[in-house]
Design goal:
The complex is a heterodimer of chains A (248) and B (154).
Chain A (H helix, E strand, L loop, with lengths): L1 H7 L2 H33 L13 H28 L2 H32 L9 H22 L3 H15 L2 H11 L19 H33 L4 H8 L4
Helix pairs in contact in A: 2-8, 3-4, 3-6, 3-8, 4-5, 4-8, 5-6, 5-7
Chain B lengths: L2 H26 L1 H4 L3 E2 H5 L9 E7 L5 E2 L5 E7 L4 E7 L11 E8 L5 E8 L8 H10 L15
Classes of the chains: A mainly alpha (248), B alpha+beta (154).
């Protein structure tokens, strides 16, 4: 088990394995999203209060979940990279940031589109859930800007890694904001003590889309890490060999 | 201590330090972090005097009064303890209906009524098909949610 992980941390080994993983993650993710979205938009019944407008949940909730999951991936990878000095780990952190930022943007945009007719406003600065999610978008931007500002890869890894770890404190704030404070945003529907407050015919497509988005995130992350690894190792023998053999 | 363990300790201490710092800050800002103020607090005089603020509560069933042809609307808000009358002139969100949770932004008038310049509907975390809501209302009226799909528009 541990040797498998140790081997995976070696860039050439990761490069070989990940090539086979990308299509599995990507294709299965897209198929699951197709099923979930079809059932969410056309099969699930309308909501008793929101009518058809609730269906934006099938994009909003998976995006919001992944905006946080991507941040956790980034912070964990940065932390592992800082402590064990694993280059691949830093490459994972760097690769996760732009994908996470896009999911954050999607979550905010779909939330605003829904909020205008349902709440009566596009945006509320006083709402802790909205504000902390927006803060996460800026944390992603800050992380990416810091990386881009430092040309030395090692220094960029360390500086941005610390920022990613510090910003991780925002994750529990986003998650619990609707419980700790009175907010405009509603509380959790799925993760409740008395079970999901949603019937199975609405919930199943949502769970499918959450799983599909996660697989798609895995595929996108792997593609970006592969590019990052090649960039970091472009002077190494194994990359040169790949190029000579025409495999790159 | 090995360098790796030193780094582990450093990362751990920084994380714990920031966590405590943020927790203390959030506790200190607790009052300001509230998106709205409870009606009981407003009626006890616990609200900011010189600026506008938000109140949140449920719209009391049967309390919505609207003059025909006018946007002016008056309704009572309750936190199931005390009530507050709100007057508002403007377009209401789709989810505004009797029994629904709403948040109103404005100030307390001299007559004790809340003059709102913005009314937001607060959605709850429950989702269900209309038929289920309808049968809930039929068989267990006490727990049934408001099923009126038509917003009360003039």
């Amino acid at each position: 088990m541990w040797t498998w992980f140790h081997k995976l941390a070696s860039p050439p080994h990761f490069f070989r394995i990940s090539e086979k993983m990308v299509p599995w993650f990507g294709i299965s993710g897209l198929l699951i999203i197709a099923w979930g979205t079809w059932h969410g938009l056309f099969v699930a019944p309308p909501d008793y209060q929101q009518g058809d407008a609730f269906r934006i949940i099938y994009v909003h909730v998976p995006s919001a979940y992944l905006s946080m999951a991507a941040y956790m991936t980034m912070a964990l990878a940065a932390g592992i990279g800082l402590i064990w000095r694993i280059k691949l780990s830093h490459a994972v952190a760097a690769a996760a940031a732009p994908i996470g930022a896009w999911f954050t943007f999607l979550a905010l945009a779909t939330g605003m589109i829904w909020g205008r007719p349902m709440w009566g406003t596009w945006w509320e600065w006083g709402d802790p859930r909205l504000t902390s999610e927006l803060l996460m978008l800026f944390l992603y931007f800050g992380y990416m800007a810091l990386r881009a500002a430092i040309s030395d890869v090692k220094k960029a890894d360390n500086a941005s890694g610390v920022l990613a770890l510090v910003g991780a404190v925002n994750i529990p704030i986003i998650h619990y904001s609707v419980e700790w404070w009175s907010s405009l945003h509603q509380g959790a529907t799925i993760l409740r003590e008395d079970g999901p407050a949603m019937p199975p015919e609405m919930l199943t497509p949502l769970l499918f889309n959450i799983a599909g988005f996660t697989l798609l995130f895995g595929a996108l992350l792997l593609i970006r890490v592969r590019t990052g690894v090649i960039y970091r190792e472009h002077r190494k023998m194994w990359v040169k060999n790949l190029i000579q053999r025409g495999e790159l | 201590m090995k360098p790796r363990q030193q780094r582990m300790l450093a990362v751990g201490l920084v994380a714990i330090g920031i966590g405590i710092g943020v927790a203390l800050t959030l506790t200190a800002f607790e009052e300001n972090m509230m998106f709205f103020i409870d009606i009981s607090d407003v009626n006890e005089g616990k609200y900011p005097a010189n600026r506008n603020f938000r109140v949140g509560g449920l719209v009391v069933e049967g309390s919505v009064e609207r003059e025909t042809g006018a946007l002016e609307i008056q309704f009572d808000l309750t936190d199931l303890n005390t009530e507050l009358t709100v007057i508002y002139s403007g377009i209401l969100p789709d989810l505004f209906r009797e029994g629904q949770g709403i948040v109103a932004h404005g100030r307390l008038g001299t007559d004790g009524r809340f003059i709102a310049d913005e009314v937001l509907a607060k959605h709850d975390e429950k989702y269900m098909p209309p038929e289920v809501a309808e049968s809930l209302k039929q068989y267990r009226p006490a727990v049934a949610p408001e099923t009126d799909m038509e917003a009360k528009q003039p």
